[in-house]
Amino acid sequence: MLRLSDCPEVLDALRAAMAGWPVEVVEAEGAAPPIRLGREGRGYRQHSPALPEGLFLSTPTEAACSLIADLVGEYFDRHPDSIGLHGGSVEVDGRLMIFPAPHRAGKSTLTAAFAAAGFRVFGDDVLALTPEGEGMALGIVPRLRLPLPESFAPGFLDYAERHAGPADRRYRYVVPPRGRLASHGEVRPLGAVVLLARDEGAVAPALSRLAPGEGLLQLLCENFAPEVASEALMERFLPLMGQVPCLLLRYSEPLAAARALGEALSGPLPAALPAASLVARPTLSTGALPDGPWAPEQSVLDYPLDDELFLVEVASGAIHRLNPTGRLIWQLLRHEPLSPEELAELLGEHFGLPWVRVLEDVQALLAGLAAAGLVSPAGMVSDCP
């Protein structure tokens, strides 16, 4: 609920931008609600729990943007069983393709391009993840940053003009035709997690497979659930990434990318997609490792996904990711405390490699795990759960 005072043009902008969100207008009475906006000079001032000192907004479009952010936050406060995912989402063949990404990564532009290509929009900035693991629309239309690059396809630029909604010098809402925007509360199962890589040198859109861990890491980073413990997020996201593919879309022009991705995902996923990786494995300094066996800290939870392992420190909520070799070392340490030399001997036998060659890598990994507080020399491990 929000209160608007002496600013009917802002109400008009909200109605257009929240085209799929049911809006009911009633006469104000009683105490003012937490979210409110009124005219101030040539602009408006908004107050909310997140803006106790108020925020001056100069245009109806800017006011609508800010109010929607607070309304979305209030929605998730009232529905703590849902998690807000930061990213675009569109429906392809009855399932949702979601693009979790940080600000200015191109997700809103790609979402609007999907609309121009004839697909149904579920959201360009936020999607609610239900307790059942489905995506729920909030009914908000895509918002583009202006000016649009002249390099975009004419068909996309024309669509953005024909379906232009509230706009100012910085932003323009794009209102899809009736039936092309999911209404608030509509749900669909997830079909794929797609990570975006804008590449101005890409001749044509290219789709490749990523390890499930790439998608899990992105979901853990791009959500609106700062109060939810890391282990609770892992338990929500881990089953999803075990069921849906994680893909990388490399592209330069959004409309061509939307058409290519929509065609590729309209049916079974092509089996011959090339594999890709986004993670550069860091080289860790070995430092000075104490002699003797090492063991995992008891306060660390582990979550396997495909051939990788994610570790969560319960106290801090920090999340760490191990590759297949790191996962094997962690499993060996979970079984019994081992020294670097013993680990190197076991791994050397497993991979058929010389002990000396493996030892340096084992020492580097243990040094990194120790620096992160994930392992300690045996006998010094904390008993705290």
Automatic annotation (TrEMBL):
<dbReference type="InterPro" id="IPR008792">
    <property type="entry name" value="PQQD"/>
</dbReference>
<dbReference type="InterPro" id="IPR027417">
    <property type="entry name" value="P-loop_NTPase"/>
</dbReference>
<protein>
    <submittedName>
        <fullName>PqqD family protein</fullName>
    </submittedName>
</protein>
<dbReference type="Pfam" id="PF05402">
    <property type="entry name" value="PqqD"/>
</dbReference>
<dbReference type="InterPro" id="IPR041881">
    <property type="entry name" value="PqqD_sf"/>
</dbReference>
